[in-house]
Amino acid sequence: MKRVIMIAMLIGTILLSYATGYNAKQEALISAIEKNLKEQSYSVERQDDGLKFKSEGVTYYIEVDKDETNPMYVRLCRYVKFDDKIKRDKVMKNLNDLNAKYAVKAYCKEKNVILSAEMFVTSAAQFNYAFNDMLSLMKSAYATIE
Asked: What is the CB-side half-sphere exposure of residue 126 using CA atoms within 13 A?
């Protein structure tokens, strides 16, 4: 009976590690970024591909690429739907200026524009050091398309 329980626990652990797809170093990165955000009073939620948090009522995502492990690839992004205020044609016309002026990448999809700030890191300290600047640049880029 003990053997069956141990095998079930082992299988469960293996399935859980494959479900998240992150290695230990990536998990540590996500946990350290999450801790830093909570220390800055952000409400943080875990996602399959990283973290989700709100700043000034706006939802942002921190995505960690499961395939990039040394260094690790981290992306801070915001998804903005097109509406009466934000038109796809206007954003498309200004993409070159947006991408040249800010350290934020802007690219259009059919129904939204994605603003992202990306970096390769070897530790969470590198991302945490740049986080506030990246978030500020992203907010500035959004103000330009608004």
From this structure: 12
Give the number of other Cβ atoms within 10 Å of residue 142's Cβ.
19
Identify the burial level of 123 via C-beta atoms within 10 angstroms of its C-beta, where 0-12 means exposed, 13-18 middle and 19 or more buried: middle
* Residues of the chain predicted below pLDDT 70: 1-20
* Assigned domain for 12 exists: no
Which of these, 123, 93, 127, 124, lies nearest to 108 by C-alpha position? Answer: 93
Q: Tally the domains of the chain.
A: 1
Indicate which CATH number applies to the domain containing 130: 3.30.1460.70
Strand, coil or helix: what is 63? Answer: strand
- Does 14 reside within a domain? no
In one-letter notation, the amino acid at residue 58 is V
Residue 44 structural domain: 22-145
pLDDT digits (tens, 9 = 90+) for 98-126: 777 777 888 888 888 899 999 999 999 99
Tell whether 10 is covered by a domain. no
